[in-house]
Amino acid sequence: MIEKERVLNGSEALFLEAGIKSITMDDIARHLGISKKTIYQHFRDKNELVTALVKKRLADDEAMLCSIISDTGNMMDEMVELTKCTGEIFSRVNPAVLFDLQKYHHEGWMLYLKFKTGFMVNIIEKLLKKGIDQGYVRPEIDTRIIAIMRVNQIELGFNASVYPHAEFNLWDVQLQLLNHFNYGVCTLKGIAVLNNAD
């Protein structure tokens, strides 16, 4: 089991650095100082390795996000922590990984889409509803529509045809989109908290 985790962690580091397509099983073996045979003892092929890695990464991200959102906490504190957490997640994502995942690893891509359209939309919607109850979020918004918009806004920030990577820093784009979202959904009470958090 330890060897399998080592393969997952080592391949993740390589994929995040260079994308999925450009990394071979030979590259992973060389990076870890093991034989390809050792990798194939745990994973049938590169696609199975990628799928296992996506499952692991999404489970870790889900656990981290769930630990921030509690049923009793202050929504604005949770929003600030969520911003920090998503910043950490986005800072390690190479846009090529999402492109390669979509184009070459269907099963992994479907897991990502399920996470995005299911878990992420639901957690943002839950946060927005809590914000309405606590007076920080405008009560007239449709939380489902806005949650779906926010998830797609995050993905838009990775789109190189909209925000060319040579011209825009990924995290700066995400931060601008996040600020636009936050200031758009908050009441004056919520905006006052946001202004004090900066």
Automatic annotation (TrEMBL):
It comes from Mucilaginibacter gossypii. Residues 24-43 bind DNA. Signal peptide: none annotated. Residues 1-61 form the HTH tetR-type domain. Keywords: DNA-binding. This is DNA-binding transcriptional regulator, AcrR family. The keyword DNA-binding applies. Coiled coil: none annotated. The keyword Cell wall biogenesis/degradation does not apply. GO terms for molecular function: DNA binding.
